[in-house]
Amino acid sequence: MTVILLRHGRSTANTARTLAGRSAGVALDELGVEQAKGVVDRLAGLAVAEIVHSPLLRCEQTVAPLAVDRGITPRVEDRLVEVDYGQWTGRELKELVEEPLWKVVQQHASAAVFPGGEGLAQVQARAVEAVREHDRRLADEHGADVLWVACSHGDVIKAVLADAVGTHLDGFQRIVTEPASISVVRYTDTRPYVLRMNDTGGDLTGLDGRGHKPDAREPVPGGEVGNGR
Question: Which of 5, 12, 144, 147 has the lowest tally of Cβ within 10 angstroms?
Answer without folding.
Answer: 144
